[in-house]
Amino acid sequence: MSRPPATTRWPIDDILARTDLAALLDEFAQPDQRARRWHCPLNDHDDNHASVTMHRDQRGHERWRCWSGDQRHRGDAVDLVQAVRGNTRAEAIEELATRAGLQPGRELPSIAPRKPTLPPAVVLDERVVAYANICARLLWSPLGTPVREWLHNRGLGDDVLRANHVGADPGRDRLRRSHGIPYGAGPGATFPALDVNGQIRYVQTRALEPRPGYGKYDNPSAALAPNPRLTWAVPPCRTQPGQLLICEGIPDALIAAQAGYRSVGLLGSNALDPTVAARIANVATRDNLDITIVTDNDDNGVGKHLGQYLADRLGTEEHVVTILEPPEGHDLSSWSIEDSTWIGGVGHRLTGDRSARRDPSMWSPQVPTECAFEPSIP
Ligand SMILES: [Zn+2]
Fold it and tell me: DSSP E strands: which ranges in 110-257?
């Protein structure tokens, strides 16, 4: 597997000067969109908190550091490649040389003046929307078959997939893309984040087989798209009035939408900027919605903590907020596949005084038939 040892000795200062460490971190680690931070790319560090930052040392070299305190989780670009790939220093240098366009026996191209780092985008770049739309078309083509099967196996039916522009990224070998679009090392499902009007504002690509050392999700770079922190899922059918479900992640929000609920998906459990609760509350007030927070229960308490945090902020006199917790070891997707009566849990919580104020015939805990999806059993 490993390549023959490099025979060319590249000047390391030159290699580092020709390497954009931030771009490398964007690729090798999951970026945190709020700040110039990344989730630690090392396998042995399950880094919920985006602990990696960048700085420049006295020699002008860019360096990264994970604040876990582990001395191995830091260094320059060569150390990063070595840490992620698990290869030798010579192999890491060779990879960076190749990436920088250096070739043995050829004179070094003159070095480009260092580009200042692009500031985080304020407005969504249309290439992100184009990528999401192309992938949404590919889902229904033969190239999309493995992704479609993967989505079906997770309980998502065609109607909700179409309504929410879910797509298939066949991988960068088959679909070229500009820098800053999700990398696409292999096939992935694309989940657009939609605004309250159903417009695509962002997209997350879920690798069908995440590579070791990488997160499950890949996002557009912060320079192309501001992370909206949440998505408004579109139910593919008539909705249960009066109820808004808040879920962790876009796939769970789609499960709720498929069951006929208006739903919000939070893009990542560390996505709690102060505007999230306020934006949800605004819509809940406008449309007179009670709120049910469906927490993950497969993540050592992170989901419960998130649910409580949101409940504290949303539970005002104006809003009835309840928390619905899947059984231990489940998120909503896995729960809904195992137990199709999960919806009854939402209905059960609704028997409070608030629902009595509404016409009880207005909603029922039954799944509307046109909304039901039975996962196909092979
Ligand atoms: Zn670390």
Answer: 167-169, 188-194, 200-207, 217-218, 230-233, 243-248
